[in-house]
Amino acid sequence: MASFLYNKAKEGFLGGTNEADLLGDKIGVALVGNGYVAAASHSTMTNVGTSIVKTAYFTTAVTGTGTNGTGASLGLTITDGIFDGPDITIQSVTSTQTINAIVIFEQNDTNQTTPTHTASKLIAYIDNVSSGFPINSPSGANITVSWDSGTYKIFSL
């Protein structure tokens, strides 16, 4: 499957009611296993469910520090319709699942350790990053997601 933006995220970017605030909210990345059958019609992390292998967040420091903080993510930019941010390392990934992609989401719930609630909005499904997919049964490895350094960065509208 090719990378895509989820339909509700696109509607939000175009002025709908489900707007994801890429610069004002906590934005995360979830490694997803082969059990997730991605569909552009999915809208929240509940659709990804048990296929979430591990999540990490762009640096957050409005309240608290690091990935445990709450509030806006730092280091993200939007320039000329292009969304970009720093590469992200997901620490100590252990799974029996094969990791096939990542999902970018907006953390909109108060439970900072479980982003599977209906309030956490899906933004993008990406299956082609320089780290390479699939990753077969990682055993405690750190996985660094390196974004495109060319024209499109994380994604472009």
Which strand order does the major sheet show?
A: 1-8-7-2-3
Strand content: 25-35%
Order of helices and strands: EHEEEEEEEEE
Rg value = 14 Å
Shape: globular
Q: State the separation between the terminal residues, measured CA to CA.
A: 19 Å
Helix percentage range:
under 10%
Please report the total strand number as a whole number.
10
Structural commentary:
There is one protein chain. This protein has one helix and ten strands. The protein is mainly beta and 157 residues long. A hairpin with a 2-residue loop joins strand 4 and strand 5.
Could you name the key traits of this structure?
157 residues, mainly beta, five-stranded antiparallel β-sheet, three-stranded antiparallel β-sheet, globular
SSE order and pairing:
Layout: E1 4-5, H1 7-13, E2 26-33, E3 52-57, E4 77-79, E5 82-84, E6 88-94, E7 99-107, E8 121-126, E9 139-145, E10 155-156
Antiparallel strand pairs: 1-8, 2-3, 2-7, 4-5, 5-10, 6-9, 7-8
Task: Give a concise summary.
The protein has 157 residues and is mainly β.
